[in-house]
Design brief:
This protein is an alpha/beta fold. The chain is built from nine helices and 19 strands. The strands form four sheets. Strands 9-8-7-6-18-19 form a six-stranded mixed beta sheet, with helices on one face. The protein has a six-stranded mixed beta sheet with strand order 10-11-12-15-17-16, with helices on one face. A five-stranded antiparallel beta sheet has the order 4-3-2-1-5, with no helix packed on it. The longest helix has 23 residues. The radius of gyration is 30 Å and the shape is elongated. The chain starts with a helix and ends with a helix. Bound molecules: fe (ii) ion. Fe (ii) ion binds next to loops.
Length: about 450
């Protein structure tokens, strides 16, 4: 909606000029395009620098003039001496160069209090849960969705239907609270998804008015577990379709500014699979305590001995990186939260129960309230009795029978090189009945 009549008038004037010029060149109405105008060189959110004054800022707005020039409104990331934001400054495109700094991502829609209530009204799935905090949650924390095209062997229900139900539940939660989703990797089970799975996922996300869905790649998302191949994977398509924005993909562990919650921008440091967590590098540029998102194996307590070279305990990470208010991790499919001196490590665990040993797992996401640095688990609806151990029990039974046979052979029979000789010895020592012996010999190849 236009802000004022004056603005509306400007817009009509531009439209009139545009059509007039097209007619001048003999372009028919139906073929008119904006191609006559200079396209924008820089994207919104890019950090640019004015080569004349040295002023640097985030591209907050762009204006395209009929006189064939583009102007950019830059918002400084520094506050003035009174701690207030500096007014945007406008520059011609020819004066601007890229600062080389990371692009800023904002949530696609910045809801007002009115649109927030509309947003909540759209939610089909009602919940009886009472929100304990008076402030709205800042983000939804999640990890390890392992989206897949087939059902795992342990599931006895319609697994795919259950999987989509959970995806929709989390998306609805994001709509309900008008906050973004932050995912700590392994959105998929494999790096390549069939087309129908990609289409279905993109369709589901695009149907919801969510603030933003930001993620890092986990090893399952990457071809050959190689971060530099992420564009060749399904996550490259999700990113291009703007369903999920994958960050930290250049692997330098630098931060990205992201608008979370109502008005606050957070510096988030991204450590995809294979990238070691490190402390924040640009401390002077921070507008609030930073957050780290990592795909690395973290355990709730000290890792088991066989994991000591691969896993770290949550407390050790919190102690090693004291500057992060929140560390969100993925990889370990168990859910836990560890607090240390008011700071949190949240490992949301897997979204789906895909193995028999997850029979007691309660899939959940966490609502994070930045102001209080507190999380609240939101348990996803699950159906009981859909995880079966039959395939494991059958396998174990078979293994036990084979093992018993081998044990008896090794204990009671001296194994020789001749299979027939071994059989004869076994028959002699175990008093096998003649009809059985006859049947065995009859089945032997002549
Ligand atoms: Fe995983």
């Amino acid at each position: 909606m236009k802000e004022s009549l004056e603005e509306y008038g400007d817009s009509l004037f531009h439209e009139y000029c545009f059509r007039s010029v097209n007619k001048l060149f003999g372009i028919k109405e139906e073929n008119m395009s904006r191609s006559l105008f200079l396209s924008f060189k820089y994207e919104l959110g890019e950090v640019l620098r004015d080569v004349v004054s040295g002023f640097e800022g985030v591209t907050m707005g762009r204006t395209q003039y009929f006189t064939d020039c583009n102007h950019y409104g830059l918002g400084s990331r520094q506050l003035d001496k009174d701690g207030k934001p500096v007014e945007w400054q406008w520059f011609d495109e020819t004066r601007l160069i890229s600062s080389g700094k990371k692009k800023i991502f904002l949530s696609p829609v910045k809801p007002t209090s009115e649109s927030s209530s509309e947003c909540a009204g759209d939610v089909k799935m009602k919940r009886s849960r009472q929100v304990k905090s008076s402030s709205p949650p800042t983000a939804i924390l999640t990890a390890d969705w392992h989206i897949r095209p087939t059902a795992p062997v342990c599931r006895t229900d319609d697994f795919l239907a259950a999987m989509w139900k959970k995806v929709e539940f989390v998306l609805d939660l994001a709509v309900e609270h008008c906050c973004p989703i932050l995912m700590a990797g392994d959105i998929g089970l494999k790096s390549q998804w069939p087309n129908w799975l990609l289409e279905e996922f993109i369709r589901k996300v695009s149907q919801k008015e969510i603030w933003g869905f930001y993620a890092i790649p986990g090893q399952h998302d990457l071809p050959n577990h190689q971060l530099n191949q992420w564009r060749e994977a399904a996550i490259g398509v999700l990113h291009e379709a703007k369903s999920v924005i994958f960050l930290g993909t250049d692997g330098d562990g630098e931060s990205e500014g992201i608008m979370l919650g109502e008005k606050k921008a957070f510096n988030i440091y991204f450590f995809p699979y294979g990238i070691e967590i490190k402390n924040p590098s640009d401390k002077n540029d921070l507008v609030s305590p930073p957050i780290a998102i990592a795909h690395t194996l973290v355990t709730e307590r000290a890792p088991e001995e066989f994991l000591t070279d691969k896993a770290r305990s949550a407390i050790s990470l919190l102690q090693k990186f004291p500057e992060y208010n929140l560390i969100l991790t993925g990889d370990n499919h168990k859910s836990f939260v560890v607090e240390h001196e008011g700071r949190l490590l949240v490992n949301p665990g897997s979204l789906m129960r895909t193995a028999a040993d997850q029979v007691d797992h309660k899939p959940r996401v966490y609502l994070w309230y930045a102001q209080e640095n507190r999380v609240e688990p939101i348990y996803l609806p699950i159906e009981e009795g859909v995880i079966s151990r039959d395939h494991i029990d059958n396998e174990e039974e078979k293994d036990q029978r084979i093992q018993a046979y081998i044990n008896r052979l090794s204990e009671e029979v001296e194994i020789g090189l001749s299979f027939e000789g071994n059989l004869e010895a076994y028959f002699r020592q175990n008093r096998i009945r003649k009809p059985v012996i006859d049947k065995v010999w009859a089945s032997m190849p002549k």
